[in-house]
Amino acid sequence: MKIFPYHFILSLFIALTCAGNIKADTPPVKKANSHKADKPGFTKADADLAYKAFNQYFYNPKTRIYCSTTKKDGVAAIWVQAIYWDMAMNVYERTKKPAQMDFIKDIYQGNFEHYDNYNWTNKKVWFIYDDMMWWIMSLARAHQLTGNKVYLEKAIAGFNHVWEGSHDPKDGGMFWDFQHSGKNSCITYPTIIAAVRLYNITGDTSYLNKAKSVYEYGRKNLFDASSGRLADNKIGAHPGYSDYTYNQGTAIGAAYALYKATKDASYLNDAKLAADYTMNHMCKNGILPTEGDFNEQGILKAIFAQYIMELVKDGKQTQYLPWIQQNVNTGWQNRDTARNLTFRNYAIPCPTGDIQSYEGSSIVYFMQIVPPTKK
């Protein structure tokens, strides 16, 4: 996985704050305020409300960038800003509101100004390859949505930069860090998704070939083809198996993207196998794992949301929808009703004190792309 404590420590030195100095103290958990009397479920209006609350408590309209906590005393990690941008795109696709398209542009510009104009060679801004690839995926998608050529130019330049520095031409696969310490799922599968998106945009088959080659490496070294479980990394000769929803999600997304591009059913079968493993082996009573203890792992299920729902909606694999809706209903039911914020642990009431944007993101993200369960 991404070494989140490492990311967090480095971010103390490189991130500008939203309103003061970054504080890493875990806040006291106050008595939660949930709404157990309601029948579980959510409406389109609830999806709007959840997103409005998320932005109210975590977005800084002056800097046009997201903060790490409700205190707004620090900037959220560079790579998660791309996930929040993806969520903004999902909201536009759901609502088609012109104001939301303006918001997409604002998020891009805020991060453009904060992160040296997306200068991929700035090693003070970027200190790991996978951070870049999350943005490259989102930039390619933003071009698909808006037609903005600048987004595409940034995506292509970023992809070429990461490929040159991360790809192992001898043994295959992608190194996640500048020191080439290991080949991780968090760079492998986002690279595939980005490459397929660039292929779909440009028609350049070199992107598709790169996606296939990286997928082949991942399937041999990071994917248990008997179960659908993803290894988090391979350092040296040994894969390290730890279960994380974002690895499962990006593997689903990569496999499904290649299935759409090639019509090779083996990719679709892999996507379903990874989804089955997540549903059958990573959940407790059907609820996705908590992930994150006041750190960036809180966002992992938001990434999973993007790609499981592509499989459900575009891939018509609706067998997973009741399970996903159960998770969303439970998480929304346990929201803090005073603020309409949600939590990384869907099964318990959301704390009413300071929480992180990471841990408050995934239910909101799901609600933008999952069909509502109430009218």
From TrEMBL:
<dbReference type="GO" id="GO:0005975">
    <property type="term" value="P:carbohydrate metabolic process"/>
</dbReference>
<dbReference type="InterPro" id="IPR053169">
    <property type="entry name" value="MUG_Protein"/>
</dbReference>
<dbReference type="GO" id="GO:0016787">
    <property type="term" value="F:hydrolase activity"/>
</dbReference>
<keyword id="KW-0378">Hydrolase</keyword>
<keyword id="KW-0732">Signal</keyword>
<feature type="signal peptide">
    <location>
        <begin position="1"/>
        <end position="24"/>
    </location>
</feature>
<protein>
    <submittedName>
        <fullName>Glycosyl hydrolase family 76</fullName>
    </submittedName>
</protein>
<dbReference type="InterPro" id="IPR008928">
    <property type="entry name" value="6-hairpin_glycosidase_sf"/>
</dbReference>
<dbReference type="InterPro" id="IPR005198">
    <property type="entry name" value="Glyco_hydro_76"/>
</dbReference>
<dbReference type="Pfam" id="PF03663">
    <property type="entry name" value="Glyco_hydro_76"/>
</dbReference>
